[in-house]
Amino acid sequence: MIERFLFGFLLTFLFGIILAPLVIKMVKKLKAKQTILFYVEAHKQKNGTPTLGGLIFILPSAAIFLVLQSGESKLSIMALIVFLCYGLIGFLDDFIKIKTHKNMGLKPYQKIIGELFIAIFVSIFVYKNVFLGTNIYFFGTSEVNIGYFVVPLIIFAFLAMTNSANLSDGLDGLCGGVSFVSLLAISVVCIITANAQMEMGQSGLYFQEMNNLSLLGVCASGGVLAFLCFNSFPAKIFMGDTGSLSLGGLICSLACFCGQELMLLIICFVFVLSAVSVIIQVLHYKRTKKRVFLMAPLHHHFEKMGVKETKIVAIYIIATIITSGISVSLILI
């Protein structure tokens, strides 16, 4: 099993490394360049950087996973479909931005409708799935039956995670670095959860499902690592909404399909911070016409304070490693 995970990780990484220069060349030829928002002063020099970099990890992850997966794989195939569907929404958003040469793609309501449709579909799938249903784990391997509330919980989780990942994609290597660690952590969580359930009499088919789910997460992490080789400061290419929405969707799928929705609060804590900082900023400004942060999301606040971009990214990744370690420890305990 471990050999298959390592093989999947390395193959996807190598595929991504080979594919990246081709994607960069293609998007430059198509003039698919990112238009930077005018109020991000520190990023003016990044204007015109190629985008659509999400393709660098989406395509290899899907291809290698489909080759290596075996046994029962309904959950992992659904997670892959969600991964691709959110990537498609992001691609449409990026395409409009490229065509109009403005940082305004799909209208907010259009993007939300697409995200919501996928989230509702997945929530019904989970509710009816024989291995999942209405049970979730409460920060460990203790199951809690929440009945019909599992549907709104999953819908909220998908909307929150995809948009949080999207908001965090503001610095070179930030969203990719955090997602790389998160994907590995959730893959480990899936396997530990499966082992715990096997000890309590769960069927071997369940273990096959979790095994394939973890394989998808590991393959995706290999693809993201390849992307980071070209996205770390100074970035040669941005992942765009194609990448950030797909990663948010995949991370949430992995957590929901192993019943560990609540673990997203810990593993993806820095993504949560980005979303919460924006909500606080908007609500407080509407009420008082004053800002809590120099700029939201939070990483831009730190930039305004004079912290270097590379240092912010490093701190976010280290924080995710710590929170991931905490989540794995909670399950083991």
Task: Write a short abstract of this structure.
This protein has 333 residues and is mainly α. It has one domain. 71% of the residues lie in helices and 2% in strands.
Structure description:
With 333 residues, the chain is an all-alpha fold. Helices cover 71% and strands 2% of the residues. The chain is built from 12 helices and 2 strands. It has a two-stranded antiparallel ribbon with strand order 1-2. Helix 1 packs parallel to helix 7.
How are the secondary structure elements laid out?
Elements lengths: L1 H28 L25 H14 L5 H27 L7 H21 L6 E3 L5 E3 L4 H19 L5 H26 L4 H28 L8 H18 L6 H4 L1 H20 L9 H7 L4 H24 L1
Antiparallel strand pairs: 1-2
Q: Would you tell me the overall average pLDDT?
A: 91
Total beta-strand segments = 2
Compute the gyration radius: what is it?
19 Å
Poorly predicted regions are none
**Helicity range of the residues?**
over 70%
Order of helices and strands: HHHHEEHHHHHHHH
Shape designation: globular
Q: Give the amount of beta strand, in percent.
A: under 5%
Going across the biggest sheet, name each strand in turn: 1-2
Number of domains: 1
Number of helical regions: 12
What characterizes the major β-sheet?
2 strands, antiparallel
Structural class by helix and strand composition: mainly alpha
What is the CA–CA distance across the termini?
23 Å
